[in-house]
What we know:
- Keywords: Dioxygenase, Oxidoreductase, Signal.
- This protein is 12% helix and 35% strand.
- The protein is mainly β and 173 residues long.
Amino acid sequence: MRRALAALALxxxxxxxxxAAGADRDDRSKKQTITRSEDQxxxxxPLDTFTGEVRVDTLFxxxxxxxxxxxxxxxxxxxxxxxxxxxxxxxxVVTEGVGRTQxxxxxxxxxxxxxxxxxxxxxxxxxxxxxxxxxxxxxLTGVRDERAVTWMEHVSDAQYHxxxxxxxxxxxx
Length: 173
């Protein structure tokens, strides 16, 4: 029985990798591209959306073929984003150090190198470095209707230190 199923599956797997009838013949001539690190931009995190010293190293912008952008974001100790949401969500891959993240109304959570954080669409949250550690994450941010993020108010020192009594503003802004 297993051999019969395998014999049926092999031709189907081969078809799955083959171009469909009438497929764009230009796909065969497309080539990989490499953007060298020295050609990528690095900017200071703007003061209206970040607290503390933050560097944003853009890896790639969102495009038609891949509707998400990529960047390394490095937070110095105590630095953090403002509260914000993403219309198409965001995935963070912590590559160095120790950080913090929090969803509106939820507990303060520690994140470490190797952790992966999923920020669902429309969920108010923030992220940044722990008080005594640099933290870098790769941010893969989805784009919907040409928008990647909606920035909100700054995270207060009380919120950063896990004191929810300061959470008096509404979840949206």
